[in-house]
Write a sequence for this structure.
């Protein structure tokens, strides 16, 4: 928009209004990081899902049965940690690392410091509204929202390269769901977008162009 001083950058942003993440664990990690800096932090969608997951993860780590839908298939903590190193395990990796580093109690206590995102949420929670310094959200929950300055978290992973029928290395496929979510993510900023974890799109596009030309 030529009428606005808008820009796109990479790396980390000094003072984003919002940070958009791929996974809930990263949402909690970024929120805790901001709370440690004495910032007032809001999480889109609230903290109940994160608290429930933290309690469940703590039970699993203690060797107790766990019925949480995301963790019920793991028999013990080691099995979960092994899974986080597999291609599909990124969704739980950030949370598992937080539990290992801080323990569930620290995470749950941090959730108590999360402020409502807006006045409507404050009324629902029967809390006074305090303007947050930072809003943290999954990309999925950011749909329909906009902020002036948005940073993309580093948990949006570039697809691994593949090999075509000729044996040439080609860019890995981005499935339709991921592509749509990436689009939502980079269109939430009104003034300054820091692409961060999606800056790999340039490399991916160049490799795709070479494959088409070949």
């Amino acid at each position: 928009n030529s009428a606005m001083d808008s820009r796109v950058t990479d790396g980390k942003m000094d003072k984003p209004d919002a940070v958009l993440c791929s996974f809930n664990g990263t949402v909690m990690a970024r929120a805790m990081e901001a709370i440690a800096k004495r910032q007032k932090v809001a999480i889109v969608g609230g903290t109940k899902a994160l608290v429930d997951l933290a309690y469940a993860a703590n039970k699993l780590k203690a060797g107790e049965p766990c019925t949480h839908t995301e963790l019920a298939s793991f028999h013990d903590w080691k099995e979960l940690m092994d899974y986080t190193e597999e291609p599909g395990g990124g969704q739980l990796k950030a949370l598992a690392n937080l539990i290992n580093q801080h323990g569930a109690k620290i995470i749950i206590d941090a959730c108590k410091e999360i402020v409502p995102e807006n006045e409507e949420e404050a009324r629902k929670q029967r809390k006074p509204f305090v303007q947050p310094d930072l809003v943290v959200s999954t990309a999925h929950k950011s749909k329909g929202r906009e902020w002036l300055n948005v940073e993309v978290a580093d948990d949006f992973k570039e697809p691994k390269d593949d090999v075509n029928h000729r044996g040439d290395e080609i860019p890995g496929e981005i499935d339709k769901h991921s592509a749509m979510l990436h689009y939502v993510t980079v269109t939430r900023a009104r003034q300054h977008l820091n692409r961060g974890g999606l800056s790999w799109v340039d490399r991916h596009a160049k490799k795709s162009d070479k494959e088409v030309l070949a």
Residues 48-61 form the longest helix (14 residues). The mean pLDDT is 89. DSSP finds eight helices and eight strands in the chain. The CA atoms of residues 157 and 203 lie 13 Å apart.
